[in-house]
Design brief:
Number of strands: 2
Strand content: under 5%
Strand order of the largest sheet: 1-2
Shape: elongated
Distance between the termini: 94 Å
Radius of gyration: 31 Å
Number of domains: 3
Structural class: mainly alpha
Length: about 700
């Protein structure tokens, strides 16, 4: 046991070391907000309500309750900073590397070939996306259950061969354990629906269970060991029947996924089946190309309008040629047959025949499929060394060089995932006309205080695709920030014409209309957004503000309460609820919400002023003056804060300090009638 233990330890340590920089990386603005940073169910941790929500259908256009639960557990145990989730993803990847080695070793009886496959899996640059992107927890989590399923299935077959479990084997503990792991995998990511087909491939090689193809496995190595005298090789139909429960689970998962993703499909009228078939065939070739030449890796790869006919023909020719070779040599090179169809089959759910999203392909989709290619490379290299009598030392050195190159490319690719800006600047450089990358980079720049550069990215996106609703929405936000409200409305309305059912755009348009005091129109926008997304906390908060502005205070309070139920640490909602409670005369409750808003955001000037005003109204002058002073420290040019602080100081008998504050209010706002009147009452001359 020393050799496999040492290999496991080495694989785990190298994987952890290479990917360790992710502990310093940030969230990105693609999917991470929906999955974690802006998801109230996840941020509240593992709660009974959260568990019920996780098992609902359609969240993020998918159904993967175990993935949601894992994110909730992160929030409970590690907080909502990116460090914990990044490290959990990395740990899952390291576990998968070790499991892959152990499973292949158990199935084939080999050490170094299995270790080479696991090392390629650990270090290939195409796998960076699945590990470094927190939202792709579903990849690393589901693959762990995939590998555990294969391991349990291998033990079930081995015991069947040894006579410990005969017949269909459905009474075998290992069989049911494999079925359990498969179920958990489907609940982590539905891409695992192809696993029953992979089990049939493994029956062919290396398990050698197919009765119509009795061949000698390479070097006589097989997991099934020596067959007992009474063991009868099962028929092909027997093997298929044995997998029926797995196929049933796959069918159920497919049905649930189609239902969950129904809103994410690109309409067939907009993307003909012929175009999708062309893209699928070309994508197979591109995946192979990036496997052997992993440069210009990006997120996402934009979907082209169509592929050149020459490229499609070459892709089809390559596809047919490799399939023909794999089938023709299936007896001599069974690992080629199994590895190639493992690669082809496991990509089917994400190859684009049923198109979800706008990407033409994605690195993360290769996390499991590339295992098939790595098996071909590892066992093929062993065959070549034996056939051509090459020195094993030279072969070992070549393998180390390949892994070294993968390691360096992976470390370089990993660096692009430091944050949203580095990721999408690289994507723009690595791809052409990537509208999605321009939109996300622009949004990041806008959020981080670079509005002009953000606007240039939005304009670039619109110039590439005039139907890019996301860019128009972002341009609307840009003009809103500048106070150019009419232009903001024009762009938000254009975004809605292109995508009428976007709750974010409806919420943004509502905010612009509310800023123009068109509250009835704003309320309609917020209500439409909430019909599309009932758990949209910001829309609840904004709707509450609009309702409060038109005197519908009781309704406003209900929406503020709902916003806080969804996101308890929403400082703005606490402040707004405090305002509404004041209107209702519920002063003590209002004070508590103002305090909570300040606790969550100590620099929240509006909440500081509001709390100080209420404290002053309830004659708590000393504390009120402290909050006014904190507000002035953050915003020293606010005449109202100076005025109210002056009034409080008058009540405290600190006349000279009060005069200073009142004069400053008048200096900042020369026509401030209340400040003039207060100074006159203090018999202080007012200079016109």
């Amino acid at each position: 046991m020393f050799r496999p233990t040492l290999i496991c330890l080495l694989l785990a340590l190298v994987t952890l070391a290479v990917f360790s920089p992710v502990r310093k990386y940030d969230f990105i603005n693609l999917d991470d907000p929906e999955y974690i940073t802006s998801n109230p169910h996840v941020q509240q941790g593992l709660t009974s309500k959260g568990v019920v929500w996780a098992f609902g259908i359609g969240h993020a256009n998918n159904w993967h309750p175990l993935t949601w639960l894992s994110h909730m557990l992160d929030a409970d145990l590690l907080g909502i900073s990116p460090v914990g989730p990044h490290m959990v993803n990395l740990l899952f990847h390291a576990v998968n590397v070790v499991l892959l080695f152990l499973v292949l070793r158990g199935l084939t009886g080999t050490h170094w070939r299995s270790a080479f496959v696991a090392a390629l899996f650990a270090l290939h640059p195409l796998h960076v996306e699945s590990v470094a992107w927190i939202s792709e927890r579903k990849d690393v989590l589901s693959t762990m259950f995939w590998l555990l399923t294969l391991g349990a299935y291998g033990r079930y077959v081995q015991r069947s061969v040894q006579g410990q479990a005969l017949g269909l084997g459905w009474a075998s503990r290992d069989y049911w354990l494999a079925l359990l792991f498969f179920t958990l995998g489907l609940m982590s990511k539905p891409m695992l629906v192809t696993l029953p087909f992979v089990l049939l491939l493994l029956d062919y090689w290396p398990l050698n269970r197919v009765s119509s193809f009795r061949f000698q496995v390479s070097d006589g190595e097989t997991a099934v060991g020596t067959r007992s005298a009474h063991y009868q090789l099962p028929t092909t139909w027997h093997l298929v029947w044995e997998k029926i429960p797995f196929f049933v689970l796959s069918a159920i998962s497919c049905a649930v996924t189609l239902l969950a993703q129904s809103k994410g499909f690109i309409p067939v009228a907009g993307l003909p089946i012929s175009v999708r078939i062309e893209n699928a065939l070309v994508s197979y070739a591109r995946y192979l190309g990036k496997t052997f030449w992993p440069v210009d890796l990006a997120l996402p790869y934009p979907y082209p309008g169509g592929w050149p006919s020459t490229g499609v023909i070459l892709a089809v020719a390559l596809f047919i040629a490799i399939c023909a070779v794999a089938v023709w040599w299936k007896r001599r090179l069974p690992f080629l047959f199994v590895g190639w169809f493992w690669f082809l089959g496991t990509l089917v759910p994400v190859i684009g025949l049923i198109q979800v999203g706008t990407q033409s392909m994605a690195d993360r989709y290769t996390y499991v499929p590339l295992i098939g290619i790595f098996i071909i490379l590892s066992w093929g290299a062993e065959k070549a060394v034996a056939r051509w009598h090459l020195p094993k030392l030279a072969a070992g050195i070549a393998g180390v060089l390949v892994l070294g190159i993968c390691l360096m490319l992976t470390m370089r690719q990993l660096g692009y995932w430091r944050n949203t800006e580095t990721l999408f600047r690289h994507t723009i450089a690595a791809t052409e006309n990537n509208v999605f990358a321009y939109d996300n980079l622009g949004y990041y720049l806008y959020q981080h205080g670079h509005p002009e550069e953000a606007f240039e990215n939005y304009r670039r996106a619109v110039s590439i695709d005039p139907k890019d609703y996301m860019a128009y929405n972002n341009i609307g936000c840009y003009f809103y920030g500048l106070g150019r409200l009419d232009e903001a409305i024009t762009n938000c309305q254009q975004a809605l014409r292109l995508d009428p059912n976007n709750p974010n755009t409806l919420d943004n348009l509502g905010m612009v209309l509310a800023c123009q005091k068109k509250y009835s129109e704003a309320i309609k926008c917020y209500e439409a957004a909430l019909r599309l997304m009932p758990d949209y906390a910001d829309a609840h908060n904004n709707l509450g503000a609009a309702l409060n502005a038109v005197g519908r205070t009781a309704e406003a309070i209900r929406h503020y309460d709902q916003a806080l139920r969804l996101v308890p640490d929403n400082a703005k909602a606490h402040n707004n609820l405090g305002n509404a409670l004041i209107t209702e005369g519920r002063v003590e409750e209002a004070i508590e919400h103002y305090r909570q808003a300040i606790k969550l955001n100590p620099d929240f000037v509006e909440a500081l002023n509001n709390l100080a005003l209420v404290l002053a109204a309830t004659k708590q002058y000393t504390e009120a003056s402290l909050y006014y002073q904190r507000a002035l420290h953050l915003d020293p040019n606010n005449p109202k804060t100076h005025f109210f602080l002056g009034c409080v100081l008058v009540q405290r008998g600190r006349r000279e300090e009060a005069v200073v504050q009142l004069k400053e209010a008048l200096r900042l706002k020369p026509d401030y009638a209340e400040a003039k009147r207060e100074l006159q009452m203090l018999k202080v001359p007012v200079t016109e």
